[in-house]
Predict the 3D structure of the following.
Amino acid sequence: MTVPAQSPLVAAAPLPAPDLSLVSTGLIAEFEAAGVLQWADVHVAHRLAQLAGEGRPDVVLAAALAVWAARAGSVCVEIDAVAGELFETGEERIDTTSLPWPAVDPWLAALTESPLVGCEPDGPRRPLRLAGTRLYLDRYWREEELVREALQRRIARPAPMVDAAILDRSLAALFSGDTASGQRDACRTAAGSWVSVIAGGPGTGKTTTIGRLLLTFHELGLRRIALAAPTGKAAVRLGEAVRAQFVLHGAGELADRVEAVTLHRLLGLRPGGAPSSGSADVLPHDVIVVDEMSMVSLPLMARLLAAVRPDTRLVLVGDPDQLASVEAGAVLADLTESPSASRLGVVRLTQNFRFGSDIARVADAIRSGEADAVVAALRAGSAATVLVETGFQTVPEDLRERVVEVGALIHESALAGDVSGALAALEGHRVLCGHRTGPYGVAAWNRHVHQWLSDAAPGYAAEGEWYPGRPVLVTENSAELGLFNGDSGVVVATSGGPRVAFPGGRIVPVHLLDAVATAHAMTVHKAQGSQFAAVSLILPPPGSPLLTRQLLYTAVTRAKTRITLYGQAEAVVDAVQRPARRASGLRTRL
């Protein structure tokens, strides 16, 4: 299957001219015209400046950059380093070297004197807060302070009392041999600390450790235990993994008492962070375990710490090398990289029990920033880790064949009403993209895959939108259906018409679903927390602002047996050499 050269599979799209705000003039207009700022950043900054009676262009620019930083995932903007930050327009990076950046010292002096800015720690409460060279929107500074102070109080308290004999007996029964030494150490640390962090990559036994840790807590007499995760999908998977550990270790009678919930549900929050009518001021639990901490934002962490009793053990679990929350902050990375990591009870699990050595080797090299080693491993001839160098002028034939093969299995099972077979086939392979839109994005690749399947099996989607075998992704939480943003399922034929089957036995009539998208391809962000037998990653070209070390690492570690990267070796190098950086004061101030 070859696409004519004049109609490449991936065609470059011209960038639209930026929409400039009507209030932009002078200095700030230059930054907006260059694409550094968007109209929303500018309008918020101008409105705040108007309310405060602040008219200096460099202060208004700083305010707009603080708004931009929060939108980009940082909790502050570093005034002395912002000129070197990465900015983007669409899918391209912006060269900011020619922009008229203010000199740092006069800029900081102007901010210190501004009625728009309060100075940390004792300055008056104003819309912006300057702490050293970091400029925050006041909300994020206060949330960071809450998290910092709450964690410092926890590590300063005398350690909780633990019956050493019971702890030793429980750990000896649950762990044997040297292979589990890291997991055993993590359990011992969590049992004897008011706050602890269990960090590790996929396959290092984090959820296994959680299950055994809960059994240990039960032996120690700690029975009021909460399990939570930032997404519904992660909560379901956590609950299943913990129950499996209970059954494995002869505690099946406890399995029915285990329920993992979303953090929002635990805290009584509605989507968007507003407290629900059932919100509790202080959570009553003896132990709270939060999984997938890499996806927990600073505001959500602040909510959690404000609700946890001082005598509750807090156990935070996750992979700090994965993509961070889509909202502001990178809390888990801040905790694990803090100078106070040992006092925070950080234990890293390093032994991999899941991946083949080749995938693990590539993931480790990505995490370590060894670009040449990553490319060499991908070119070494392993069947498990492959780089297909392509400019997408023609369809990568092996990708088309794999998509068609797996799609046919899904379709056949779904058409026959075989729910378990369709779900199992759905986990066999997935196309992942770094972008949502554009020629390298999910929307375009969903169209490509759908066309390939339709060409291979005429009538594939003849039954309209809800055709058997259609993979779907939930895009909004639906508590009444037990479905959450990020859950994936597949349309299956039943005697009562088409239904969508989800892991865990949920089968939902299609007329109840109004917030789903076709998921032949997914973003790497949406795939976070999922695993597939094989993964095909569509690499954007070098220069994409989304090409980061964390994105590449997260994509590679979604694959159990095979990861294939399609694109240019230069894009791999670009990603490995550019770790995503989120400005924060938390890690240095803990």
